[in-house]
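Listing S7. Sequence submitted for prediction.
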Amino acid sequence: MEELNEVTVESKASEEETSRSFGQKRFLLGILCGMLIAMSIVGLVLLGNHFLSDYKVKAAVKAGTFAEDGESYHSKIVNEGVASKIVTLESVIDKYYLNDYTNEDLETGIYRGMVDALGDKYGEYYTVEEIKKAREKSEGVFGGIGAYISYDEDLGCCIIAGTMEGGPAERTGLHEGDIIYKVDDIDAQGMDSSEVVKYVRGEVDTVVHLTLLRDTADKTETIEVDITREIIESNTVIYEMKEDNIGYIGITEFDSVTSDQFTEALAVLKGQGARGIIIDLRSNLGGNLDTACDIARNILPKGVIVYTIDKYDKRKEYTCDGEHELDLPLVMLVNKYSASASEVLTGAVKDYGKGKVVGTTTYGKGIVQTVIPLSDGSAVKLTTSSYYTPNGVCIHGTGIDPDVEVEFDSDAYYNDGVDNQLNAAMEEIHKIWESSY
């Protein structure tokens, strides 16, 4: 399963203090990872079979090999000294640690520590239960509050990047840009989006308490809200006909259900006589690469949509046959929370000159993660390649600049219901019409 997902994007209150707090936590995490790196070795030995006899475990550690499905790997770090230190650490924890823990806690920590030690902020180890929940989300159904949670690089914390229309987060009054300070009584500062999401989600009909920081015109407010979790069935595409027969399609994320939803939306709008299309990818954090390419095949001419290059310089191309190329004026609407798969689609549209890009510079996530299943039902997600737009541009760390830059006027939106960026996109459609006369 390849994804361009979980970018976690983007506030302003006490940036220096937040950065310092985050740095301290990263330092402590580094110490923990250092301890767990050694423990992770046993994970490699035990991963294929949790029921190896003590003799076989010792033999495997001594040999430093791992074999599965006919492939063997000789470890660069497994040795008897490392295994001995793991046992020593376990005995120290067992003898002195104050609080309760389970053997499963330590075992999971071993695996997480090995992935954390890579410094891959998108890398993650999933338990069997966690990978099940991740698959449910990618299929468009999960339990939660209906909010898009993203990581702000400048602040070192997570924010609300958007809310699902009609969902519990929107009904409760959450705003784009709200800083997530606490989830229940858990300090969320320094957590990445995947960590925060784990705490925000839960059983249906249970309540999660959020402490948020919200920037207003003259101060930063602290907002306390209780939100009841619901079954979230992601309607990832919304559409309607705007004035002057301009079709609007908003895509909130790229899940497995999104491609069909987009195809239906485009067909309906064309059937209603649309004379131009706006695709709104604002606050769309990404998702499945294949889904983004499927949507691109409804828009682009024949050619490369995107290509990836892995650690072995192997190139993989995703192409379009051009049979369904869009023949209407097109505008892509983006902001700094448009990331990953959103940037794949936007970058291809821009490179082929198929439409104008309106809004603000996108996030800049030009790398691909792959979820790799393990034999015991768990999985690991690792960054496995970089992606490039059709013109060979890697936008990682820079993003895609709009053709027409328009900053979002939040006061006009939340106070008067005026979406100035959408209005600018509609103006661009009018300009395209005028230039063709």
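Caption to Listing S7: primary sequence and predicted structure tokens for the chain studied. The CA atoms of residues 351 and 391 lie 6 Å apart. The first helix runs from residue 15 to 47.
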